[in-house]
Amino acid sequence: MTHSPLSRIRRDGDVLDEARPPAPFVVGLTRSGTTLLRMMLDAHPLLAVPPETHFVPDLIKAARAEQGTDGMLAAMTSNRTWEDFGIDEAEIRGRLDAVPAGDAAGAVRAFFEAYAEKQGKPRWGDKTPAYMLSVQRIGRTLPESRFIHLIRDGRDVALSQTARALNEQPPAAEQAARWVKRIRKSREQAAALKGARYVEARYEDLVRDPEATLRRICEFVDLPWDEAMLSYHERAAKRLTEMAGTLRAEGTHAEQEAGYRIANHAPTTKPPDPAKLDKWRREMSAGDLTAYDAVAGELLAELGYEVPA
Fold first, then answer.
1. CA nearest 260: which of 272, 248, 251, 277?
2. Which runs of E-coded beta strand occur in the chain?
3. Inside any domain, residue 263
4. In a domain, 45, yes or no
């Protein structure tokens, strides 16, 4: 596979005049089904989507600050997820050496193109939930970026986060406030981008009618429909092995022992199960439900979720 031509850059580092296939960035709150969507998209024969990267905003900063190859490389390799990608550091160094000073888009593409080539695919995407707060930074750097915001009923998000968390979770009202704030922040950042580069999809729709939801997403990113996406679970176990290693503790993030992430995402090795939706009806206490709806009820209703009177 030949490398993409180097991009033209403005003084502020934003890229101009690109004619590249759209690159999907799957974003959303944690425990909103983003790994499921990642597995579905990655099953497409043309598209490679790595495990969560987390370093793209730092890589953009390093490139724009003209920190050189060492600075850009450190932005990637110092991240606790780096070992997930199985990419030789010397190879990335060589690619970064060819990136002009200040070309943040070229630096980001250097990684993703290396990963896609490793998977034998011509196109790439990303699935890092936290990038829902970096839509503007990434979007202004990569004109080919298209953001797919996967939204799940916040009450089920809260239940899932609490069940899977390694740290103690805040009370329901605080979880509701975080859900509302992050969705609105993502929308605000997307509105600042030029063109139709942001779309929202509901996790519940992806589970209940995966083909219809995936067809809409494929159209959004100019990706031809392929039935392989519906059989994602047949290869999911193999893809999850990339995340078999330990993640060290970092900041507010607790250490994740070897195998934890594979167990955490084990449901992606099976077809979607609509019976597991709307857990809040069965599992959320009356007090937590009242507290959550008092904060997030307006946005829940706006998104089409039922809110008890």
1. 248
2. 8-9, 15-16, 23-27, 47-48, 123-124, 126-127, 145-151, 198-202
3. no
4. yes
The tally of domains found in the chain comes to: 1
Q: Domain holding 173: CATH number?
A: 3.40.50.300
What is the H or E stretch that residue 263 is in? helix 260-264
Per residue in 237-272, pLDDT (tens digit) is: 999 999 999 999 888 888 899 999 999 999 999 999
Q: Assess contact for 153 and 183: CB atoms under 8 A.
A: no
Report if residue 7 sits inside a domain: no
* pLDDT for residue 254: 85
Tokens 């829940």, residue? 300
Q: Could you tell me the two tokens for 257?
A: 């022992």
SS3 49: coil
**H/E element, 224:** none
Q: How much is the pLDDT for 228?
A: 98
Let me know if residue 4 belongs to a domain. Answer: no
For the entire predicted model, the pTM comes to 0.92
Q: How far apart are CA 150 and CA 201, in angstroms?
A: 5
Show the tokens assigned to 261: 């992430």
Which stretches of the chain score pLDDT less than 70? 1-18, 165-167
255 forms bridges with which residues in the sheet? none
The predicted-structure confidence for 12-61, as pLDDT tens digits, reads as follows 344 444 589 999 999 999 999 999 999 999 999 999 999 999 999 999 99
Q: Do the bridges between strand 126-127 and strand 145-151 make them parallel or antiparallel, or are there none, so unpaired?
A: unpaired
Domain that holds residue 52: 23-225+272-302
